[in-house]
Amino acid sequence: MNKYNIKKIDLVRALRAKLGFSEYYSKKLIDDIISSIIMNISIGYFNLKNFGTFKIIKKKERIGRNPKTKEEYKISARKSVRFILSKRITKFHE
To answer: What class does CATH assign to 44-94?
Structure first.
C-alpha cells in the first residue's frame, strides 16, 4: 500500500481536470467542504455516509521522549480528530 499526502491544491487540480471547473471555483468548493467538515466536527463527530466518520477524541497527558537525546518531556492532554473509514470503502480495496 502506498502512503502519500494529498495537498489541497491536488484536490483543486483534480476537480478542475475532471469536471472542468475554473481553478477559483474548484478552490472555493474544496474550502467550503473542509469548512463544513470542521464546523460539524466541533459538535463531537461528523459522519459522511458511505465515506467515513470524523470523531473528536481526548488524549491523556503522557510522557514523551526525544529519540535523539533520550530526554523525557511532558505531552499535555489535548483533543484530536480521528477518521474511521466506512466499511463500504474498505470492500473496494480488498
So the answer is: few secondary structures
For the chain, which residues make up each domain, given as ranges?
A: 1-40, 44-94
- Tens digits of pLDDT across the chain (94 residues): 466 788 999 999 999 999 999 999 999 999 999 998 888 888 878 888 888 999 999 999 999 999 999 999 999 999 999 999 888 876 665 5
Model pTM score: 0.67
H runs (alpha helix) in 3-93: 8-19, 23-41, 87-92
